[in-house]
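Lab channel / #folding
Pinned by the channel admin:
"Please post every new chain as: sequence first, then the structure tokens as a reply. Keep commentary short and put observations after the output so the thread stays searchable."

First post following the new format, from NK:
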Amino acid sequence: MIEENIKFARENGFDAIMEESDNSEWKEIYRLSIPSSPIYIEKIIIYFLGKLSAVKSTSKHLFAIRTCLSEILANAMEHGNHFDLHKKVKISLQIEKHRLRITVTDEGEGFDFRNFRTNLKKINREFQKRGRGIFIVKKYMDSVKYSSPGNSVTMIKYLDQ
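Reply from TO:
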């Protein structure tokens, strides 16, 4: 199975895959680096959902995970790396017994996440085209944290809730 995953990743242009396990507590870690092109978003989602399908506690969360991963990858490619194919988006998926941690990092300058509006009523009232994605991610995930300067986000979903 690991060989098939590595072959799939290489055939689809993923730079790196790493699977690790920790003896103290069961976990799997996958790290990928992809060009800033939207054509990779669905491939990454299929790859990660394949990894998650083996974990029974994730099944009721798959829609939320798919939606949030898609949104954050699109944001990193568009707003962070401006679709520059020379810039990479790095994704880390850590599956633990009771939680899932996803980190997405782009090579952009970041954004001021502290002052970003997530008031959906105001966004809708002003007919803004942007801003709903981060709002949706914050609603679906149990924790969403941006690192300074705002070019990396870590999302956590507790699987036993």
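NK: Residues 68 and 137 are 5 Å apart (CA to CA).
TO: also worth noting, The radius of gyration is 16 Å.
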